[in-house]
Amino acid sequence: MKLTPDKIAKEIATGNWKPNMYLTNMSIAYLQKPENVAKGLRLFPRVPVPTATGHYYKYDKATLARDDVKRKPAFGKVEPSIMGNDEDTYSCKVDQIIMGIDQITALNYTRAGVVGMIDPRKAKTIAATEKMNTHLDVMFSKAFFKAGVWQNELEGVTATPTAKQFYQFDNDNADPIQLFDSLCVQIQREGRRKPNKLALGVDTFTALKSNAMILERVKFGGSTLNPATVNERALAELFGLNEVVVLDSSYNTAELGQEPKMEFICDAKGALLLYAPDTPHIDEPSAGYTFSWDALGNGQPVVFSHFQGESGTHTEFIEGICAYDMKKTGDDMAFYLKDCVS
Length: 342
What we know:
This protein is α/β, with parallel strands linked by helices. The chain has helices at about 5-15, 40-45, 60-65, 105-110, 120-145, 175-190, 200-210, 210-220, 230-240; strands at about 45-50, 55-60, 85-90, 95-100, 155, 165, 195-200, 245, 250, 260-265, 270-275, 290-295, 300-310, 315-330, 335-340. The protein is built from nine helices and 15 strands. It is flat and about 115 Å long.
C-alpha cells in the first residue's frame, strides 16, 4: 500500500502507526544556565602566570602599618625604618576531561543533517564544557567556601550568641545589617581594606530575603506596581558592598550507576564576606587570588581541543584542560559564616 500524507495522518490518528522520528528542534538536557556557573571566579581576581609553579612577594603588614616617623635629633638622623617582606608560592595543577565520539554512529547523524543537541560532536562539546564549569565551582568551594578554610570564622546559632557566634538569619533576633557592618569594621581594621564583596549560599540568601530587619529597610522603597524586592543588588546597598553573589550551581554527588543525588556545590548555609580587587594589582592586598596557567601555551585558562583516536577504532575525542590554583592570600581580609540558617 502506497502511503500518502492523508493515509499517514489517518493511521497516526487511529493509533495504528507511530512514527519513529526524533524532534530536531528540542531536547531535554539538564544544562545549567551560563550565569549560574563559575560565579566564584568573579570574586577573586584571576592572575595569569607564565609557569605552572612559582613565587610571589608578600610585604609584611606589621612593618607597613607601624608609625616609624620620629623627631630628627639636632645634628643627627633617625634610624632607618625597616620594611619586611616574605614570599609565597603557587602551583597550578593540570585537570583534564576527555569525552569519546563513535565515528560510525556519528555518521548517521551527519548524513541525516541532524541539528541540535543530539549531534554527537556538538553534544559532547557542550557536555564537556558543562563538566568543566562544574569542576571549577567544586574547586572554588573547596578552596574558599566552606568551614575550616578561613582564620576568621563565625557560627550561626539559635540561642544567645557567645564569642565567634551570631544569630542565624532566620531567627527573629537576627540583625544581619548590624552583623555585616561590625564585620566590615573588623576587616578594615585588621586588613586595611573595607570589604567589597559577599558570597551567599542558597539557603542563606533565602533567609536574608525574609529577614525582618532587612524587609523593614526596603519596604518603603516599593509601590503597588513596583513592590520592594530583596535581591542581590538590594543586599549590596544595605551592606555597603559593591557586589553580592549567590552561589547556586548544583551537581550530582552520587557515583556512576547510582541514583542521582543532587546537591548545591557551595555550602547552601554559608556566607563569605571579603575584600578582593576586581583585577590583580601590584602592591594591592586581596583575600585570595586565582592563579591560572595556560597549559597549552595559547593564553587561555580553559582549553578544549579535538583529536582522533587510534587507527581502526573509528573514534575521536573532545578534550578539556585547565590549570588553576585557587589560593588564600589574605586571611585577615575575609570572614566565613557557617550555619547561617537553622
